[in-house]
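ok so I'm stuck.
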Amino acid sequence: MKHLKNELTRFLMAYKFGLDEMNTKINILKEEFQYVHDYNPIEHVKSRLKSPDSIFLKAQRKDIDLSIESIRDNIKDIAGIRITCSFISDIYELATMLQKQKDITVVEVKDYIKNPKANGYKSLHLLLEIPVFLSDRVENVPVEVQIRTVAMDFWASLEHKIYYKFKKEVPNHLLAELKEAAGVVSHLDHKMENLNKEMDRYKELP
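replied:
not stuck anymore, here's the structure
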């Protein structure tokens, strides 16, 4: 196990470099928007790399063989980036720009905005592969990118805290309250989107 943990630490270096590459791309888009359009669709960016212990726990939960090859093939969220945007339209615009980049391969898209989870969770999930050029090889590293509005992110954060507090055994009345809150968040996002469009229309008036 100690040997595997050391191997995994070295293995994770490629994922760290993949995160660095993806963060650079996102920062370039962010700055370009600011300079060219005088508008920044990105409110916040947060990245994380799973620790060896966290990977082991997930492998055990999924009944995955504890080998580097098996972990690489079966756990795709080792490197993750969460982006919060102002408006729903910003989410799709940013996602399109990332997917169009020639060195990025789109592995999977899960649209939980158009098709929310049963509990009300909303977010756009992209699984992207980005090449990392090491001294002796090129590694295509998967990076999970989650893009959501500030309101969606606040709801997801609250849901996570509640599930953690009750160790996933959440009382039914709280689940119902969460689902209702998700509806309020959705209404707020659409209201803010409409206000933004209305503001843009006023900008175009002489």
